[in-house]
Amino acid sequence: MTVYQHITGADWRNIWVVGDLHGCYSLLEQKLAALEFDKQQDLLISVGDLTDRGSENIACLTLITEPWFRAIRGNHEEMMLDALLHHRDAGLWQMNGGEWFFRLDNADKSRVETLLPQVAALPLIIEVTANKGKYVVCHADYPGKHYQRDKPVDEESVVWSRERITSSQRGQIQAIEGADGFIFGHTPLPAPQQYANQFYIDTGAVFSGNLTLIPLQGGEMGMELANGSVKKTTFWQRLFG
C-alpha cells in the first residue's frame, strides 16, 4: 500500500483541492469551468470518496486515469476494494452507497474492475510543496501532533477517524506541527470549516449541490504565510472567513 505521495508545486501553474465528489462529475466540471481550470497546466487533488451515493460514479472513478488529477484513498475507496478486490464485506459498501455497482451491466462492471489496481495504488496522504508553503491532504485525519513525510501512521485513522474534528467542534483545538496546512474531507459540513491549521472541505456535494474547491497554489487566490501562520487571501477569506 502506498501511504505517502509528494507533489512539487513548481510542476504546475495552479493547484486546487476538491472535497468529496461522491459521483458528482457534472458538478465538478461546472466548477472547473467557472475557475477556468486548464487541464494542460493545472492540477486537481481529491480528498477521496470519488464514488457512491451520486449518479456519475464511473465518470468520477475514471478521473484517476487523468494526468491533471490526483486522489487519495477515502473510506469509500476502501469499502470498494474490500468488496471487489478482496472479496470481503460487500454488504457494508452497499449500505453506504455502493449499490450502484451491482446495478451496472457487465460491460460497465468490467470498466470499474479494470480500474481497481489503480484505486488500490492510491496514496493515503499527499504532501504538496507549493510556492507558499507545505500542505498535507488526507481523507479523514492525520493522526498525531506532528507531521513528517514517511512517518508510520495508523492507516485506519487516516481514512476513517472523526476524533480530531469532533474534539475541535467541542473547543479542543490543536494545530498539527510539521506543515503549514492540512486539508481533510470525510465529514459533511454545511460550509468549509477551519480549526487551527486544519481545513475541512467536504460540504456534502451529493446532498446539497455544494462542492468546495480550495487553491493551494495560483496567483492571488492562494494562501500566504505570515509570521508562521496561515494568512488567507481573497478566495480563502470567502470560504473560511
UniProtKB/TrEMBL annotation:
UniProt-listed PROSITE patterns: SER_THR_PHOSPHATASE
Any single GO CC term annotated in Swiss-Prot or TrEMBL for this entry: cytoplasm
Stored InterPro entries: Ap4A_hydrolase, Calcineurin-like_PHP, Metallo-depent_PP-like, Ser/Thr-sp_prot-phosphatase
Gene3D superfamilies: 3.60.21.10
Domain Serine/threonine specific protein phosphatases: 72-77
GO molecular function per UniProt: bis(5'-nucleosyl)-tetraphosphatase (symmetrical) activity; phosphatase activity
Gene Ontology biological process terms from the UniProt entry: RNA decapping
Name this protein carries in UniProt: Serine/threonine protein phosphatase
